[in-house]
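We emphasize that the prediction below concerns an isolated chain of 203 residues; any contacts that depend on oligomerization or on bound cofactors are therefore not represented. The input was used exactly as deposited, without trimming of termini.
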Amino acid sequence: IPLEDIIPVEAKTPHDYNGAAQELGAGAPPPNGRLQPGDLQYVTKSFQLRKGEIADSFLRMAEAAKAQKGITIKLNSAYRTFESQQNLFDWDLYVASGGKRTDTTANKNAKRFVRGSNGTTAVAFPGTSNHGLGKAIDVQGTKAQDWIKKNGFNYGWSWAEGKRVNENWHFTYTTDKNELQDLTGSQTEAIVLASSPTTTPTT
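Result of the prediction step, given as a token string:
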């Protein structure tokens, strides 16, 4: 996956999500991994996040990392389509540990890992990932990861989920004050966001 410089540019071309657009009721959020092109904004040359406060907060964070420490935040992943999550998921291991390929919700006793990782890298069951909501990023490079762990909470980006699954690279956007803190052990300062979105994306 190419490593991209941050560019604050809105999406100009539709995201290819294999015709996954669905008819939804007025005001209903798109299903996980089925966001419409108009719901997304490019935050790098290749990766998109949910348009609005989520994308804007990432760009503010990226600008701060560059200005304060000369760090360019480069991504390995951001928004994922449902199909992309399906392809990442190790269905063979899931089935071998008690799940079924026909499951529409995760069997909590079955193993959920990335295909090809030999059960070492956790991944959400398709349709349940924060990547599918356009509110999660996987970050390249130790310096950028460490900076976000210590500073990302000031911009609404939390390492809490990444820490729970032992992933130094994984961060999610949230307005949960309990997760908006430095979780590296050097401090436990929770903060209140200066500006929060009027609605919180479903997790």
